[in-house]
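Below sits the subject:

***
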Amino acid sequence: MLLDGVETYDRVCWPVPIPLVIRVLNRMSRITESEQPLDPANPYDIFLVPGQFPTIQAAVDAVVRPTTILIAPGLYSESVRVTSVGYLVLQSTQLSRRGVTLSGAGGRAVVCSEGSVLHLSGVEIRSRSNLRGMLIDDSQVSLQDCVIAGNRVDGSSGEPYGAGMLCRHSRVKIQKSTVAGNVIDGESAIAGGGGLYFEDCNVELAGSSVQVNAVYASGASRGGGIWAAHTRIRMWKSRVTDNAVHAASCEGGGLYLSDSLDCQIGGSVITGNGSAEARGGGIFVCGEASKVVVHANTVVRHNHPDDRAHSASAGTQLD
């Protein structure tokens, strides 16, 4: 479904009927690793981890058609790479309740998606300050009831952006999720998007929280919470709070919006962001200010040292 040019996924998070999933869950204790996971008579597959596959990556590697991977609660010390997969759901067996934690095991991020359609539900991504949380490229990704927290990017990564999630050329929906405590920490000339970084993306952020993320750089620090560049973004009923930027030049403690295609922020709270040296502690707009609409039901206050600012080239101050 399209909403103002942004695709929504409310009705397509499950490729199979939920009652069938429940029946499968009831069979988990009777399934062995030797049982064949594929049934040619069905148009989709349900894989169980660890019931049928010892790791999440092993299940992903076995995907040949629309698939839901149901993951038992626990800590999974692995990184997951999804490449050219047509439709995949990674779902906690607690049915949208959290309990599945991915901590990563090297690579560019805990979860990487390239050229794929990927939906996560009830999953926590916590690398314990060792890796970026998610790396998304040319994909369609949605998160529901997820947590991306405690991830880190340092100066040696070569991409000092998006410690929680770095997205390029993708459609992204984040719903009822938390992005918190992610840090970019390095000596890069410019760094940003402590929580989320979007470039050339269509984004929906609904009922979610982006909080206590931070960016440290030697030269310029942008978007402690969110950096969105050349992106269409809709943010509704969400919170961007207590994010920080630290560098010689700081802009957009909460949100840094660069060359926005269209940005709509409604029913949200943006507060407690910034640093003593920042411009636009809450929201900083670089580019045409008219492309950014902050609706009257959004609270932007108590950011440091100011709530809103824009680049000199924008020409118009935010209302």
Summary: The first strand starts at residue 2 and ends at 3. The longest helix spans residues 18-26.
